């Protein structure tokens, strides 16, 4: 619980800092249309539903490569990894590795900060590990929905944060649901 609180406070403080970074005198990057954006992110991953009954929040991290197909739409491929330690057994953990295709809509605003909403679908690899026993894992279908805020910190660099809910349909393992609160840095290539 204490670790969850500290990770949450860290993520919120970085999100709160985004407007301050965005207000520096920088040249705003042009729109996303016809541009490639690579980003990395890190933050808190928190299980919910059946997964949340037995596992604690953990660390999540990943990367995304995207392409602006219009002024406001970014299509991307994301690969990330999330780990959850058991609340019941000290030698058990679950990891989830999503590989998703996403579509995000970036709103045009009167400021340099840009809110976005989006969703994605893809393959989610779920691995249940108990020390001393063979791993139980599967790769199955999942989806996500999210929203966030990003702003420029230089001509080719963005700083942002967001929230994303993930739902994974289990075949051999139970359904897994979790949400993420993450901060990230994006680079126009």
Oligomer: single chain
Q: What Rg, in angstroms, do the CA atoms define?
A: 17 Å
Taking all residues together, what is the mean pLDDT? 86
Shape summary: elongated
The computed structural class is mainly beta
**Number of beta strands:** 8
Major sheet: arrangement of strands: 1-2-3-4-5-6-7-8
What is the helix tally? 2
Task: Describe the main β-sheet briefly.
Answer: 8 strands, antiparallel, barrel
| Proportion in helices | 10-25%
- Could you list the spans in which at least 5 consecutive residues all have pLDDT below 50? 4-29
Order of helices and strands: HEHEEEEEEE
Q: Strand content of the residues, in percent?
A: over 45%
N-to-C CA distance? 39 Å
Structure description:
- The longest helix is centred in the N-terminal third of the chain and has 21 residues, at 2-22.
- This protein has an eight-stranded antiparallel barrel.
- The protein has a domain at 1-24 and 36-78 and 86-91 and 128-137 and 156-189.
- Helix content is 14%, strand content 60%.
- It is mainly β and 189 residues long.
- A hairpin with a 7-residue loop joins β7 and β8 (176-188).
- It has two helices and eight strands.
- Mean pLDDT is 86; it is low at 4-29.
- It has helices spanning 2-22, 49-54; strands at residues 36-48, 58-68, 73-85, 92-106, 114-130, 136-154, 157-168, 176-188.
Features:
mainly beta; 60% strand; 8-stranded antiparallel barrel; 2 helices; 189 residues; 14% helix
Secondary-structure map:
Blueprint: H1 2-22, E1 36-48, H2 49-54, E2 58-68, E3 73-85, E4 92-106, E5 114-130, E6 136-154, E7 157-168, E8 176-188
Antiparallel strand pairs: 1-2, 1-8, 2-3, 3-4, 4-5, 5-6, 6-7, 7-8
């Amino acid at each position: 619980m204490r670790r969850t609180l500290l990770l949450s406070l860290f993520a919120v403080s970085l999100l709160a800092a985004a407007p301050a970074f965005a207000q520096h005198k920088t040249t705003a990057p042009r729109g996303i249309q016809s541009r490639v954006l690579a980003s990395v992110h890190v933050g808190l991953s928190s299980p919910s539903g059946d997964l949340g009954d037995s596992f604690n929040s953990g660390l999540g991290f990943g990367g995304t490569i995207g392409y602006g197909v219009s002024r406001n739409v970014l299509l991307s491929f994301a690969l990330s990894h999330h780990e959850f330690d058991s609340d019941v057994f000290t030698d058990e953990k679950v990891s989830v590795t999503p590989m998703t295709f996403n579509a995000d809509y970036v709103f045009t605003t009167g400021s340099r900060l840009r809110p976005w909403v989006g969703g994605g679908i893809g393959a989610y690899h779920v691995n249940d590990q108990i020390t001393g026993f063979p791993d139980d894992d599967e790769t199955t279908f999942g989806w996500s929905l999210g929203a966030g805020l990003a702003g420029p910190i230089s001509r080719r660099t963005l700083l942002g944060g967001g929230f994303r809910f993930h739902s994974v349909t289990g075949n051999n393992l139970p359904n897994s649901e979790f949400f993420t609160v993450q901060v990230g840095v994006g680079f126009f290539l």
